[in-house]
Structure formats: C-alpha cells, structure tokens
Specification:
Layout lengths: L1 E5 L2 E4 L4 E8 L6 E8 L6 E7 L5 E3 L7 E6 L4 E6 L8 E9 L11 E2 L3 E6 L1
Parallel strand pairs: 2-11
Antiparallel strand pairs: 1-3, 3-8, 4-5, 4-9, 5-6, 7-8, 9-10, 9-11
C-alpha cells in the first residue's frame, strides 16, 4: 500500500485547506485511513480517520466541527477538509492506512505516507 499526501500550504487563521491522500496498491474496502499531525517539538497526534467501507469517521476533540474527512471511492483518495484553521493547527500532516476499523492509535496503522506541511499564520 502506498499513500501520497498533498494539499498543504500557508493560510491565515480562519482560512481553509483541503488535504488529499492518494492510496494505491490494494483493494481498500476493508481499510481505514487516518490523519495524524506533528507540530515542532511535539508528539505525533491523531486528527481524524475514515473507514473506506461505509465512511464511518472519527475526529480528535480539537478539530471536531472544523475538519471533515471523506473518501472518494472512484479515485482512491481520502480528503481532509480543514475549515476555521487556527495557528495551533500548524503541523506536518500525515495520512496512514490500516486494515480494519478506524483507530486513533498511531501504532495501529501499518502504512504511512510522507507528510505535508500546514502553516497557519495569526
């Protein structure tokens, strides 16, 4: 399984960005894709996850109501729509995949993409 994250950039506080994670190499109906982020000097943390089959989602408390994760089955892409961005959302964002149900635990994910930088200015 290969994952390729894209869509990061620089945005002002209150703005929006849409991250995409292109997934290839498998049939993904039994997979879940998670988003994690790592800010400078901090541990990597869970942001959101979506199950490929059925579209079940989960979000970390700091992003609930602002971020939405969805999947495009036809294109094998998972998106993370980020609205109402705050300076504390600044981090490198990673997508990851695992077989089975969604999880907020980093160690449950077997496949990782490279990160994409999101910077939110105040």
């Amino acid at each position: 399984v290969q994952l390729q994250a894209s869509g990061g950039g620089l945005v002002q506080a209150g703005g929006s960005l849409r991250l995409s994670c292109a997934v290839s190499g498998r049939t993904f109906s039994t997979y879940a894709v998670g988003w994690f982020r790592q800010a400078p000097g901090k541990e990597r943390e869970f942001v959101a996850a979506v199950r490929w089959s059925g579209g079940t989602t989960s979000y970390a408390d700091p992003v609930k109501g602002r971020f939405t994760s969805s999947r495009d089955n036809a294109k094998n892409i998972v998106n993370l729509q980020m609205n109402g961005l705050k300076p504390e959302d600044t981090a490198v964002y990673y997508c990851a995949a695992r077989r089975g149900v969604i999880s907020s635990t980093m160690g449950d994910y077997d496949y990782w993409g490279q990160g994409t930088q999101v910077t939110v200015s105040s």
